[in-house]
Write a structure and sequence with these properties.
The protein has helices at residues 21-41, 88-100, 115-124, 149-163, 192-200, 206-224, 235-247, 258-265, 272-284; strands spanning 3-8, 45-50, 65-68, 71-73, 106-108, 111-113, 134-139, 170-175, 288-298, 303-312. By secondary structure, it is of the alpha/beta class.
Length: 313
């Protein structure tokens, strides 16, 4: 086995809100299950498909996909703020391979990643995001216009083809989702101040970052109490999505549209694009089996919270 997959929801609220004890225990048990899976696989390299929340990518230049040749963490929500161990030559080869397959992809020699990208590695490696070499792959999951889901699938497939015959053990990670609608401004309805944040919000002051984070935490508390003015979670949509992941019929995702996802599962449900890319990468390496799945809608985390592991047959 030279490839494996971990896809998991992330939430900046993991250490800032307090779901019921049995929910927190179930999530921790799921984290331990996936840690054991990764310890057993012991990858040489991680390919991390992650979103961003207007911390590293903004409307001044918003690519649908970007491969990082070097990367650092923003430290938002007390997440990792150091330098990732990116094998630049491998990242360069991957980008060229994807472009040669007629999939346009941006590259960055100064990629900035936020909690959405690093949290899975923090969980898997007890906070040590630099524990393994990682190629960070940004998938736009927040800013319209969105690439069609079929394009996301073909992008992931191209990434998987690059690693299919690798002599390294490669772990594909997809981070995000499932249904959720946190208080992230939408460009179409944003105020002037919000538009400035969405267009060029790099390097905010500590006070500005703290205020933004406090707003999200306060919304989560209200949401858990049934008082927040955001969309509810959609467990039925989440389970249908997970069923497709498990089936291997990833072409079924081609029928998903951005408008339907917004209306049915929330504006941040687009983070499942990272899952579609990761599962497509794994399937490019051969048929696979999902051998573990956890799912629970958790309002305190504003997320349909899911974790899966998979490996080739």
């Amino acid at each position: 086995m030279t490839q494996a997959l971990v896809c998991m929801s992330h939430s900046p609220l993991l250490h800032h809100t307090h779901p019921p004890a049995e929910t927190k225990a179930a999530v921790e048990a799921a984290f331990e299950q996936v840690r054991a899976f990764v310890r057993d696989f012991d990858p040489d390299l991680i390919v991390n498909f992650g979103p961003d929340h207007y911390n590293g990518f903004f409307y001044d230049l918003m690519p649908p996909f970007c491969i990082g040749y070097q990367a650092t963490g923003t430290g938002d929500y007390d997440s990792f703020s150091g330098t990732l161990d990116v094998p630049t030559e491998i990242a360069e080869g991957l980008a060229q391979h994807v472009i040669d397959r007629d999939i346009d992809v941006a590259i960055s020699r100064q990629m900035v990643v936020d909690h959405g990208a690093v949290q899975p590695m923090e969980i898997l490696y007890d906070g040590d995001v630099a524990a393994k070499p990682v190629v960070p792959v940004f998938v736009n999951s927040v800013a319209r216009p969105f690439a069609k889901m079929s394009r996301v699938r073909r992008f992931g497939q191209a990434v998987g083809e690059f690693f299919r015959d690798s002599d390294k053990k490669v772990l594909f990670i997809g981070s995000g989702g499932l249904s959720h609608d946190p208080p992230v401004p939408q460009i179409a309805t944003a105020t002037e101040a919000q538009r400035k944040l969405l267009t060029d919000g790099r390097n905010p002051t500590p006070q500005a970052r703290a205020a933004r984070q406090a707003n999200t935490i306060a919304t989560a508390v209200k949401f858990a109490a049934g008082e927040a003015d955001i969309m509810d979670l959609n467990p039925d949509w989440d389970r249908e999505f997970l069923d497709v992941c498990r089936s291997g019929r990833l072409e079924d995702f081609d029928s998903y549209t951005a408008d339907e996802m917004d209306a049915t599962a929330g504006h941040s449900s687009h983070e499942v694009r990272t899952w579609v890319a990761a599962y497509s990468a794994l399937r490019a390496c051969g048929p696979y089996t999902v051998d573990y799945q956890f799912y629970q809608p958790i309002k305190e985390y504003i997320a349909g919270f899911a974790i899966t592991t998979a490996r080739p047959h």
